[in-house]
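[Solved] Which block belongs to which protein?

Original post:
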Amino acid sequence: MTTRRIEPRLRPTADVARTISYTPDLDGDADPGEIVWTWVAYEDDPDQGKDRPVLVVGRDANAETADDVLGLMLSSKDHHRDDANWLAIGTGTWDSQNRPSFVRLDRVLVVDADGIRREGAILDRKRFDAIAVELRARYGWR
């Protein structure tokens, strides 16, 4: 049996603006506030990519797409520190090397729920709320 790779779609954050709430529950489903892992294509070469951590900020259920997960990409690359599109969130169990992480705010990954590889961690409420404040102020989320 061949495993089908389900590729996330990248969308501008304002295009998918919605109400954001913190509802993590390590029950096997990707919930807002959880960090999950999924395959993400490189922007400069969509044929290449890697498995990476993604912060779930919402879900999008509609007739066309089954149940999609909305997520923000995480990175441990220090060059994001001075980039206004990235917010420092510190360290967490999602990174096995305990490196400081950054979350990308200007692009949302829309991931088919079947494309989520595993749950990695729960981001604490304080850090999640700081991200929610930015999404509301910059991109019209509620």
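(Second protein starts here: sequence line, then its structure tokens.)
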Amino acid sequence: MKNRRLGGSGATVSAVGLGCMGMSIAYGPADPAEARRTLDRAAELGITFLDTADAYGRGANEELLGSWLDGRARESFFLATKFGLRHDPVSGRVDRVDNSPEHVKRACDASLRRLGVDHIDLYYVHRRSPEVPVEETVGAMAELVAAGKVRFLGLSEVSSRTLRDAHAVHPISAVQMEYSLATRDVVEGDMLATCRELGTAVVAYSPLGRGMLAGAVSSREELSEGDNRLRWPRFSAENFDRNLALVRALEAVAGEIGCTPAQAALGWLLAQGDDIIPIPGTKRLARLEENAAAVELVMTPEQLARIGDAVPAGAVAGARYPEQALSRLGH
């Protein structure tokens, strides 16, 4: 596995990371045994960058990672987790964003316990609440760095203005944003320019459009009960067929290049700059191996252009989140 530098932090991580959310929530029933096998294989492949959050299963995903990490060399893995989303105790759904300095410290200690480690490599603000000045939040996070509980700081789904304000308090090593062939507008332009000016890496989550770009879903009927994609606009009955046509175009180009559509999508993303680090999520061995192999692809500028043309910017139908979740983005 090739490595990439995490912004100006001095740290290096695997060029393709592993998003662990789906091992616990969002995409149908959890399969802890398969998840552990997938993590085992990730380690064998040299994937060191593991991404989770305290909101994934209300701590369950961190606990899964913690149990898997038990007994392994801590320095072999670069752990990223997030805080800020709070759940309603009755419904279990996210009902608010808490970026208060007091919560920052409580959440960090809780994540350390669940992960079973003495420090977090990269600690993100999962979502930002405009009610709390980002300078106060990052100031509290900086105290965690000083205490040795956290190494580097990150933000997720924020505006470029927020990134600048936060970076003025403490260096922000990474910004996690949704970025893929299917979702380009949130990164390309002002955000990417600001990241490059400040020396901040872009960690691209959902780089395969929640499985759509991989050709993993050919009909809504394939999605199991409890799969969040049934609620997301891009997988709705009115948008699905239009978006599937884009996937078919990507599959055709990938076939001519000699790779899978997932590898074409990841290869295109990796080619956007050495400061882009995709973290495709999976809980299946076959998908993990397919994604990891994308790092070895060497594509010509003409091939990259054809991949981009197969799924043009702005062509995907539907918003990337339901309305309530969208309201928490870009602050």
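Accepted answer:
You had them paired correctly. Confirming on the second one: The longest strand covers residues 150-156.
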